[in-house]
Write a structure and sequence with these properties.
Layout lengths: L7 H9 L6 H11 L4 E7 L4 E4 L1 H6 L21 H7 L3 E8 L2 E12 L2 E13 H27 L15 H16 L3 E4 L6 H12 L5 E5 L8 H6 E2 L12 E2 L1 H4 L3 E6 L6 H13 L1 E2 L8 E2 L2 E7 L3 H6 L5 H7 L3 E3 L10 H16 L5 E2 L1 H9 L5 H16 L4 E2 L6 H6 L10 H21 L4 H7 L4 H11 L2
Parallel strand pairs: 6-13, 6-14, 7-10, 10-13, 15-16
Antiparallel strand pairs: 1-2, 1-5, 3-4, 4-5, 8-9, 11-12
Helix pairs in contact: 6-7, 10-12, 13-15, 17-18
């Protein structure tokens, strides 16, 4: 090495090829020489120490600069510095015995103009035993994570919270507030709403606000075969019937012990099962198939229906006593066509979700496409809206805005009523929908203050109140 004294800036300029050095790079280079986590030793081609960091000096009990000029073997007997200098090949990840502890070292040759002029070595201050402990801990944690994932695959838990329910309309806010009150009562609950309105989302949220630690067991009632309904819901003992598992089976209610059982589309349950369900709700106990023992359970029932259960009762397809037992705490989710001011919120949210899934970059709909969404009746509600958005994204694929030409035919057809005159029914629907949205938005902005909302819209107060009554706001 050059014997003349070189300051830090000169060294940095030489290393960087005389490029300007930023303060961050200068600090990083200083940290490199004084790293408290790794030792740093630089030796010349004779193996004599030119530099030893202060932490290593303290480790060996030396005063500052006390290692300079000494052979590195004086401190580390089995040092690889001589071999690296002689061969010009690095030694990486080698185990090193230093003061009766095993450490991990790496040593590199310093080559200038094809000649080895010295070497640089780094040693982890942590001992190999500590590294092995850390490694063992990482393996243990990985095993725990794997076990938890496997357990979650078998367990039942709720995913969504009230924060996941989108919408700012008064209608959806009223439903959320009612659901929160129901959640706090701990009572069995009935969630009513058309298909695609988010009944399971509400059920998840109710469970998570009242009993987040307990299991959340979902039962898709229409998917259970009639002949297996009893065994699926209540379980059975081994040998209870031909073909039964030799170990028996836990029923859905038993799995929901100390938690919640969610009965989706309750109205599809056979009347015979409805009778047993009523007894379970009243007594909170089950009797498995093939068993003579009664087992007490603690659970909450949240049922969902997309039909009018009162009409089902009148038609003899649903038990009246079960209806009054389950409908004491009821939450109604309004269909999307009754809260069209929420449609832009859903579009914005699900466009971002679809962009991640498809790798697209859409930010919005064109005004014509948005009008089509606002004028559509959405028989399938939010689930229908997501489907339409996905189809439009697949058709457009590139760009920032989705045009009307990319929308599914059904959406365009139903959102474009025949325009026979400015006073046609379709025209009135479009105007009233937008007017309702503007009024709802004004009420939201003024936190329900009707006088301020009317002023914001520059509308006479009497006219404003009449429109509130007309639109049911």
């Amino acid at each position: 090495m050059n014997e003349k004294k070189i300051d830090m800036q000169t060294l940095l300029e030489e290393i960087s090829g005389n490029y300007s050095i930023s303060p961050l790079i200068a600090y990083a280079m200083k940290f490199f020489f004084c790293n408290p986590y790794e030792s740093l030793i630089i030796v010349d081609k004779q193996g004599k120490i030119e530099f030893m960091d202060k932490w290593s000096e303290k480790f060996f009990g030396l005063s500052p600069g006390g290692a300079k000029g000494r052979k590195v073997e004086y401190f580390v007997k089995d040092s690889v510095f001589p071999r690296v200098i002689e061969t010009g090949y690095p030694s990486i990840g080698r185990l090193l015995q230093v003061k009766n502890t095993r450490k991990i070292s790496s040593t590199y040759p310093l080559i200038r103009n094809g000649d080895v002029v010295g070497a640089i070595g780094r040693v982890l201050f942590r001992s190999l035993e500590e590294v092995e402990q850390i490694h063992a801990e990482v393996i243990r944690l990985k095993r725990e994570v794997k076990t938890l994932r496997e357990r979650h695959a078998d367990q039942h838990y709720a995913v969504y919270n009230f924060q996941d329910i989108l919408g700012k309309s008064h209608a959806i806010k009223d439903s959320i507030e009612m659901a929160k009150k129901v959640a706090l009562t701990g009572m069995d609950a009935l969630i009513a709403g058309e298909s695609g309105t988010g009944k399971e989302l509400f059920a998840n949220a109710i469970h998570n606000i009242s009993n987040p630690e307990g299991p959340f067991v979902r039962v898709n009632c229409p998917a259970i075969p009639f002949e297996l309904a009893e065994s699926e819901l209540f379980g059975y003992e081994k040998g209870a019937f031909s073909g039964a598992s030799t170990s028996g089976k836990l029923g859905k209610f038993e799995l929901a012990h100390n938690g919640t059982i969610f009965l989706d589309e309750l109205s599809s349950m056979p009347l015979t099962i409805q009778a047993k369900l009523l007894r379970i709700l009243q007594e909170r106990e089950i009797e498995k198939l093939g068993s003579i023992k009664i087992k007490k359970l603690k659970f909450r029932v949240i049922a969902a229906t997309n039909t009018d259960l009162k009409k089902e009762v009148d038609n003899g397809r649903f038990r009246k006593d079960l209806y009054y037992r389950i409908a004491k705490a009821a939450v109604h989710i309004p269909p999307l066509r009754e809260r069209k001011e929420d449609i832009p919120i859903y579009i914005d949210h699900y466009l971002r979700v679809i962009n991640k899934q498809f790798g697209t970059g859409f930010t919005a709909l064109s005004q014509e496409a948005l009008d089509s969404f606002l004028n559509y009746n959405w028989p399938g509600n939010v689930r229908d809206l997501i489907n339409m958005l996905e189809q439009a994204c697949l058709k457009e694929w590139k760009g920032e805005k989705i045009g009307k030409h990319c929308l599914p035919r059904e959406l365009c057809k139903r959102s474009n009523p025949r325009k026979t005159s400015p006073h046609s029914t379709g025209f009135k629907i479009g105007v009233s929908t937008k007017e309702r949205m503007l009024i709802s938005q004004a009420l939201n902005n003024t936190k329900g203050n009707k006088r301020k909302a009317a002023s914001l819209l520059k509308m006479p107060r009497s006219t404003f109140y009449n429109k509130l009554k007309r639109y049911g706001l």
